[in-house]
Specification:
The complex is a heterodimer of chains A (about 160) and B (about 130). By secondary structure, chain A is α+β, with helices and mostly antiparallel strands. Chain A has helices spanning about 25-35, 35-40, 135-145, 150-164; strands spanning about 5-10, 15-20, 50-55, 60-65, 75-85, 90-95, 110-120, 120-130. The longest helix of chain A has 16 residues, at about 150-164. Chain A is globular. Chain B has about 130 residues and is of the alpha+beta class. Chain B has a single domain (about 20-120), classed as Winged helix-like DNA-binding domain superfamily/Winged helix DNA-binding domain (Arc Repressor Mutant, subunit A, Orthogonal Bundle). Chain B has six helices and four strands. The radius of gyration of chain B is 20 Å and the shape is elongated. Classes of the chains: A alpha+beta (about 160), B alpha+beta (about 130). Chains A and B meet through strand 1, strand 2, helix 1, strand 8 and helix 3 of A and strand 1, helix 2, helix 3 and helix 6 of B.
Chain lengths: ~160, ~130
């Protein structure tokens, strides 16, 4: 089981998820840095993400879109604030319009990620901070949520198959 | 704040929760709680009701300013105000906060999915 704990703080609009992986911090860092790896996990299998730009440096930006089962797409962007390989990553994650560029007047959410070595692997803490419910709702509407149950079941199946 | 230790059970995603919150009412909840003083007021009136004047005496701001914060909380249905003689008693309304927590839960499930997929990717490399 990769996720070990989650903390939801509705008053601060903050979600903290702690996960452990049997891999080195460098390998965990790579799933963020390498856009080809990133797009394999950012969206669920039913809404996979495609990163068309991923300037993984301080001040750098990313552009991505997620494609739904009916071919519908929703677009987003990142702007990197902190990049301390392979320990710390902070970025803004916002909604983009049909042109792929940030929608003016819609605040991005903040993501803070820390990666630390531990016995037998690496601990990753991902903290998401939201501005208001309208923003959260729009981010959810991006399609990330739609395939959740399916995605989780799919992975559980894979894990079960790998064990037998 | 709620902490949950994730078990290996399949996670069920509740669409209802998201739809319930996708309204201006829920938006008011989050805006109301975006301010530190209002969060503090809200926390203090969850257990027991307090009068506006009691609350006001604990903050370095005018009675009117505290009353304004209470009004914002009241509009978001986070607190109720009832008159007791000359006093107005402010009480916390927990069910509204529970609603707000539900939206965070949807994001929690997104991240649980992401972590599982990362583990999957890292696992492939380990076995390669």
């Amino acid at each position: 089981m990769s996720v070990i704990s989650t903390v939801k703080d509705p008053k601060a609009l903050k979600l903290t998820v702690v996960a452990q992986f049997e891999a080195s911090p460098d390998q965990v860092w790579a799933v963020w840095e390498d856009p080809r790896q990133l797009e394999r996990w950012w969206g669920p299998p039913t809404y996979p993400a495609t990163f068309t730009r991923h300037d993984f440096e301080v001040g750098g930006e990313s552009r991505y879109y997620m494609t739904g089962p009916d071919g519908d797409t929703s677009r987003g962007w990142w702007r990197m604030f902190v990049i301390e390989e392979p320990r710390r990553l902070e970025f803004a994650n916002g909604l983009a319009g049909d042109d792929g560029e940030p929608v003016p007047g819609v605040d991005p959410m903040a993501a803070h990620v820390t990666i630390e070595p531990m016995d037998g692997g690496t601990r990753m803490t991902a903290e998401s901070t939201f501005v208001d419910v309208a923003q959260m709702d729009k981010m959810l509407a991006m399609g990330m949520a739609e395939g959740m149950t399916q995605a989780v079941n799919q992975i559980d199946d894979l894990v079960a198959a790998a064990r037998t | 704040m709620s902490t949950c230790i994730v078990s290996g059970d399949t996670i069920l995603y509740n669409h209802m929760v998201v739809h319930q919150l996708a309204d201006p009412e829920a938006d008011r909840v989050f805006r109301a709680l975006a301010d530190a003083t209002r969060r503090d007021i809200f926390e203090r009136v969850i257990q027991d009701g307090l009068s506006v004047s009691t609350l006001a005496s604990d903050y370095e701001m005018s009675f009117a300013a505290v009353q304004k914060h209470v009004s914002v909380l009241e509009r978001a249905a986070l607190v109720t105000k009832e008159r007791h003689g000359r006093e107005q008693i402010v009480r916390g309304n927990l069910s509204t906060l529970r609603q707000a927590a539900a939206l965070l839960q949807a994001f929690e499930e997104i991240w649980i999915g992401r972590a599982k997929r990362i583990a999957e990717i890292l696992g492939e490399k380990g076995s390669a």
